[in-house]
Write a structure and sequence with these properties.
Blueprint lengths: L7 E3 L1 H11 L9 H10 E3 L2 H11 L22 H22 L5 H13 L8 H11 L7 H8 L1 H11 L18 H9 L3 H5 L7 H24 L10 H15 L15
Antiparallel strand pairs: 1-2
Helix pairs in contact: 3-11, 4-5, 4-6, 4-7, 4-8, 5-6, 8-12, 11-12
Length: 271
């Protein structure tokens, strides 16, 4: 999350040297050997520790026994082409669901979003669930239940970490997950592109380290949300919106190649 920052732990030895400076000792008085030790003892916090530190500042309960997620070497982050195709397909399908939940029939939405799928040549990249959804939405009257529409609309949040990871969203556009993400900018961007190549020209991919930083924080947030539900104690997860966190966690799991997360329709996001 954008608020999470790397913090350097300064050991007692480093603090002692800092105290020497405070006592007006000049840098020349610190031996080259001491400077080497200062560098040696200045240890960067682990990803797990940074995540926990951030969550504490947000008043979210942490589980010290949760392990750190995979390393950069272990992660199997999706290619930009695969990730963008997947996110756009899911985004358009969820758009139909949102229109239905807002009282529309879904027929017009299905027609419009089918045109976008064709524009980006994405028809063959829909999942089984998405193909069924487009087919049902195109019926007159649509055969989509309120429950089906509600379930599908939440997949919009699964897309948000992917759009952020590949630079379609700025940090401020993927805010602390205390409310549903504003998708206005993504709708406008997708609608303005004439084909998939133009859409891909907007890719500005974050580093694997940055992606895993966010994924690790979201993983721990999801644990807090689950714990809050189990114990019926909303203070455990602070201001987090549980449904948003859960879906974004699934998106991160798919993106980084976590175990049980390859099938977009059935992502398992373990906590």
């Amino acid at each position: 999350m954008k608020k999470a920052i790397a913090i350097i732990i300064i050991t007692a030895f480093a603090a002692q040297l800092a105290g020497c400076r405070a006592n007006n000792e000049t840098a020349e008085n610190i031996s080259e050997n001491a400077a080497d030790k200062l560098e040696e003892y200045s240890v960067e916090m682990t990803r797990k520790e940074r995540s926990e530190d951030f969550l504490r500042t947000e008043g979210i309960k942490i589980n010290l026994y949760l392990p750190e997620i995979m390393t950069e070497e272990e992660a199997k982050i999706k290619s930009p082409e695969e990730a963008v195709r997947r996110a756009v397909c899911a985004f358009l399908t969820a758009g139909i669901a949102i229109d239905i939940m807002n009282g529309e029939t879904g027929v017009e939405s299905a027609e419009f979003f089918t045109q976008l799928l064709n524009r980006f040549d994405l028809g063959n990249y829909l999942t089984a669930d998405e193909k069924r959804y487009f087919a049902k939405a195109g019926e007159n009257p649509p055969e989509i239940t309120a429950e089906e529409a509600n379930d599908m609309q939440w997949r919009m949040e699964m897309c948000m970490p992917i759009f952020w990871a590949y630079g379609f969203l700025e940090d401020d556009d993927l805010p602390f997950p205390s409310e549903i993400t504003d998708t206005t900018d993504m709708v406008n961007l997708i609608g303005s592109c004439k084909d998939f190549d133009e859409l891909m020209s907007h890719v500005r991919m974050h580093t694997a380290s940055e992606i895993l930083d966010n994924a690790d924080v979201c993983y721990r947030m999801d644990w807090a949300c689950v714990e809050a539900r189990i114990k019926n104690d909303p203070t455990i997860c602070g201001e987090l919106m549980s449904d948003v966190v859960t879906e974004q966690h699934k998106g991160y799991c798919w993106l980084i190649g976590a175990e049980g997360a390859e099938d977009w329709d059935n992502v398992i996001a373990n906590t």
